[in-house]
């Protein structure tokens, strides 16, 4: 509204007061409104000395440094000295925050109140005229506590220096660190857009803008009075203020612009941010996909509450099965939704196909149990620890000394209410399990299937129930096992018993039969690896000693004539292959490796017939290995070391379980008749020995 009306016109309109309004634009791009929300209006900062000021114009970020009245009776001088000491330390230099060794200033940092200031202006009323100047920004200034971060950094530096000073530097040999070299792939356009919209990229761009240092002038300074005159319109004629001369229709258009212009001028939000109002304008399938992609794991009831009460649950069930999988009654987003085809791991650069396969393995493990161990997942999938941690953080929480537990409780209500969906998901998981077993060479786990195809919450089956299940399973298979035992005994008699020799069969005691049934009923009984019971244990790999290797045993030895059986040849091949890789082994470590080898074999393999500890030890000795007084076995089939070098080590460690390096080197030089280089001696020691505290031991004779 323009106030260029005449005096007669004013009198004709009664006693109303008309004020001329002018638009001043001299400071339109430089005028900011400062607000101090933590300070009452009666306590201004006008009389407080301003030490420095700086601004980032593009971000509209301002920092002010104001002095603190250290002579005020309310100021605690001891606290101020303590804060200065924590921040700057005992030595003061140019980089010190508080040069006076006293907290005598504080910093104020601004934050934007609103991004749209087009509706705000500063008004100045003078001599019956109202002058308006548009605001360029509205900023709220609050005290900054960055000096506390600096104090924490100083404290950590002092602790690190103390730890470095106390650490011992007399290690026997310097550790070799592995360096991983990674090559970045060409960045796609889609990946570049995601990177540009990321929080880290925006923070980096903000940090790159330089500060512009300013000079502060007080409220009653002459320069401030001069700048304040620019709040008045410089040309007060109606010709230069055409912005305020509008027709009623144009003025109404300015107050209520059309919706199309609103959509056009609406700022573009980041791709990962979407309001619920915008979400509900999308199709149902897109709503479900966006929600699952952001939440990762969600019960069906929560999904229905987010979509709204008017949405049909049947349509939601159809849509959720396209983007998520059922795990313990809850829905987990599919891996290919999180990792599209052309993407890769931000940690290791692994392609999306490998990431999807590894995440599917984690999801499948959670369908079997409430708990998952990260090391086991990393061992099977061969992925980096960062990638595996990302998988688990999507759907689980870590518990100390237990592993990762599924993040949501078991949803039995959904399982009972939708059995058809559960059955369909079970079929999908069966196919995924078959694919994972083929890719990762997994051994099929023999576990009871639930009718709903989902594993219930862990810990609901008591120990008595498990014992009853094992007993019933043993009773069902008792007849079959007895027939198989008789058949194997007849085969052994026909092939290996000498003429004229009869084997007396003594019936087992009642207690032994019950013990046998318990052992047969157990699933995956591990081989006993304790060295004290290795040769006198009645069981071999979970079977009675009488059934080990498919025949009778003679005090733990294999039957005569069975050295050339397929089982013996297979065991001999395993032993030779093992000692080609590791040259010194204890018997317990060898049995552990044998158990791992059994786990990698397909079901029904001949080695599952039962291998006793004595049979394994005899096979090792028959393969050309030597057993010495300390509990280790040294291989003589190593193709990298000369026989005379190994023989010298065998003689040395037969007399003493630990020796010094110079003794080993002198004996090697004496026996071989030549001066061995340091590299040759290091090769021998690295293959067969290990160093602790300056002494050398055979591998396996000391605990790590």
UniProtKB/TrEMBL annotation:
Annotated region (Disordered), positions in chain: 152-175, 498-563
Record-annotated DNA-directed RNA polymerase III subunit RPC5 C-terminal domain positions: 449-704
Coiled coil regions, renumbered to chain: none
Any one GO BP annotation for this protein: tRNA transcription by RNA polymerase III
Domain of life: Eukaryota
InterPro entries tied to this protein: RNA_pol_III_Rpc5, RPC5_C
Compositional bias of kind Basic and acidic residues: 152-161
GO CC term, one of those recorded: RNA polymerase III complex
Ranges of compositional bias, category Acidic residues: 508-527
Pfam families for the chain: RPC5, RPC5_C
PANTHER family xrefs: DNA-DIRECTED RNA POLYMERASE III SUBUNIT RPC5 (PTHR12069:SF0), DNA-DIRECTED RNA POLYMERASES III 80 KDA POLYPEPTIDE RNA POLYMERASE III SUBUNIT 5 (PTHR12069)
Listed name of the protein: DNA-directed RNA polymerase III subunit RPC5 C-terminal domain-containing protein
UniProt organism field: Diceros bicornis minor (South-central black rhinoceros)
Lineage start: Eukaryota, Metazoa, Chordata, Craniata, Vertebrata
């Amino acid at each position: 509204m323009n106030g260029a009306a005449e005096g007669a016109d004013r009198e004709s309109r009664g006693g109303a007061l008309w004020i001329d309004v002018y638009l001043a634009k001299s400071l339109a791009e430089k005028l900011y409104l400062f607000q101090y929300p933590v300070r009452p209006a009666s306590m201004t900062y006008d009389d407080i000395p301003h030490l420095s000021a700086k601004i980032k114009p593009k971000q509209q970020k301002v920092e002010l440094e104001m002095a603190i009245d250290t002579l005020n009776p309310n100021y605690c001088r001891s606290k101020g000295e303590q804060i200065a000491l924590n921040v700057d330390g005992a030595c003061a230099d140019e980089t010190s925050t508080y040069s006076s060794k006293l907290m005598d200033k504080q910093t104020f940092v601004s934050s934007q109140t609103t991004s749209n200031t087009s509706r705000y202006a500063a008004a100045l009323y003078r001599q019956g005229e109202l002058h308006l100047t548009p605001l360029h920004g509205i900023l709220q200034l609050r005290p900054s506590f960055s000096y506390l971060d600096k104090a924490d950094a100083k404290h950590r530096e002092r602790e690190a220096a103390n730890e470095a000073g106390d650490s011992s530097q007399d290690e026997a040999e310097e550790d070799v660190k592995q360096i991983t070299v990674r090559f970045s792939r060409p960045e796609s356009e889609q990946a570049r857009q995601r990177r540009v919209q990321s929080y880290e990229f925006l923070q980096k761009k903000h940090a790159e803008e330089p500060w512009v240092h300013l000079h502060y002038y007080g409220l009653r300074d002459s320069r401030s009075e001069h700048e304040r005159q620019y709040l008045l319109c410089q040309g007060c004629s109606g010709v230069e203020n055409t912005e305020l001369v509008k027709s009623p229709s144009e003025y109404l258009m300015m107050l209520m612009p059309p919706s199309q212009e609103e959509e056009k001028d609406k700022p573009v939000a980041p791709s990962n941010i979407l309001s619920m109002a915008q979400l509900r304008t999308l199709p149902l399938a897109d709503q479900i996909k966006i929600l699952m992609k952001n939440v990762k794991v969600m019960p069906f009831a929560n999904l229905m509450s987010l979509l709204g009460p008017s949405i049909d649950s049947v349509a939601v069930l159809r849509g959720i099965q396209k983007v998520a999988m059922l795990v313990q009654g809850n829905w987990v987003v599919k891996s290919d939704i999180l990792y599209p085809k052309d993407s890769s791991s931000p940690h290791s650069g692994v392609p999306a196909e490998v990431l999807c396969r590894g995440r599917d393995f984690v999801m499948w493990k959670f369908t079997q149990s409430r708990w998952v161990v990260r090391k086991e997942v990393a061992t099977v999938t061969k992925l980096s620890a960062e990638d595996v941690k990302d998988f688990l953080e999507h759907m689980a929480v870590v518990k100390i000394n237990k592993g990762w537990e599924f993040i949501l409780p078991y949803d039995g209500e959904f399982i009972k209410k939708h059995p058809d969906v559960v059955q369909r998901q079970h079929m999908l998981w069966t196919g995924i399990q078959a694919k994972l077993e083929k890719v990762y060479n997994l051994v099929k786990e023999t576990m009871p299937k639930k009718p709903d195809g989902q594993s219930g919450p862990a810990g609901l089956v008591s120990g008595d129930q498990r014992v009853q299940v094992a007993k019933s399973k043993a009773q069902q298979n008792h007849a079959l096992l007895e027939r198989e035992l008789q058949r194997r005994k007849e085969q052994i008699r026909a092939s290996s018993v000498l003429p004229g020799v009869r084997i007396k069969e003594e019936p087992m005691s009642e207690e032994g039969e019950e013990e046998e049934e318990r052992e047969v009923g157990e699933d995956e009984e591990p081989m006993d690896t304790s060295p004290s019971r290795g040769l006198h244990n009645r069981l071999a790999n979970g079977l009675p000693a009488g059934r080990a290797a498919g025949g009778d045993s003679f005090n733990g030895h294999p039957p005569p004539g069975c050295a050339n059986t397929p089982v013996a040849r297979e065991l001999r091949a395993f032993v030779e292959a093992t000692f080609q890789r590791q040259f010194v082994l204890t018997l317990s470590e060898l049995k552990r490796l044998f158990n791992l080898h059994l786990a990698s074999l397909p079901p029904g393999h001949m080695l599952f017939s039962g291998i006793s500890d004595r049979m394994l030890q005899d096979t090792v000795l028959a393969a050309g290995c030597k057993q010495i007084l300390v509990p280790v076995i040294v291989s003589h089939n190593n193709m990298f070391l000369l026989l005379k070098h190994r023989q010298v080590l065998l003689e040395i460690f037969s007399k003493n379980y630990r020796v010094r390096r110079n003794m080993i080197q002198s004996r090697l030089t004496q026996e071989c008749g030549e001066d061995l280089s340091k590299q040759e001696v290091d090769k021998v020691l690295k293959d067969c020995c290990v160093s602790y505290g300056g002494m050398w031991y055979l591998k396996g004779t000391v605990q790590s």
